[in-house]
Design brief:
Layout (H helix, E strand, L loop, with lengths): L1 H19 L5 E7 L2 E7 L4 E8 L2 E13 L2 E6 L9 E7 L5 E10 L9 E5 L5 E3 L1 E2 L5 E6 L6 E7 L6 E6 L3 E8 L11 E3 L2 E10 L3 E5 L4 E6 L3
Parallel strand pairs: 4-15, 7-14
Antiparallel strand pairs: 1-2, 1-18, 2-3, 3-4, 4-5, 5-16, 6-14, 7-11, 8-9, 8-12, 10-11, 12-13, 16-17, 17-18
Amino acid sequence: MRIKSFLYIAFLIGFYKINAQKTLEGVYHRDILFSYEKYEFFKDGVFTFQKGGDLGVSLKGKGNYKIKNDSLFLNYNLTSLKENSYFKSKSYFNEKDSITLEFKVYNLKEKPLKNVMIYSLNEEKESVDASEDKDGSRILVFKKGNYKDKVEVFIDGEFLGRQILVLRADRNYILEVYMSNSESQGFYHPKAIKGDIQTYKILNFEDNFIELKNTEVNFKLIKNKN
């Protein structure tokens, strides 16, 4: 009987501790093998989330949070989205035995970019790099028939949003390529979480950490020291 009473009292204390503090504040982190997760909670009920590693941020989000009963709700309704890289193209035909792809590369403010890699992979999966002509255009030339129906062109750059262009292999192209900035060195924008509501059961809530559970695993977020 005493054991049952003790367990009940312990449950009430834990329940009170979870419900007594209705807001989170500060930066919390979770270290994972070769990566990290960071949450920042603000008094006004807003939070930000980042996941990343050595190459930068790979996943991010922003929204409103609330604690209700013994659960934490993260509503990713405030995440801002970056404009993707894009391209414009014109095509033409001729009787030559080769196909020419001509590129001019800019940032989204239409400033020319130089330190950009442009290449394709031939049928043997060998890289064919674009050369630069006298006016700064980048040129890819390949024999007609080297590609069956299409040619894929990869456009990469450090801290730029990568593009993969899929073009018809039976025609020439003149392309204007516009590259957006990225927060990551890995050639991609961080994946953005938006329109998602994540629910976690609160197992323990202390001054320096919060322990949570989702459908897959229990984990602990450690509060950063100021």
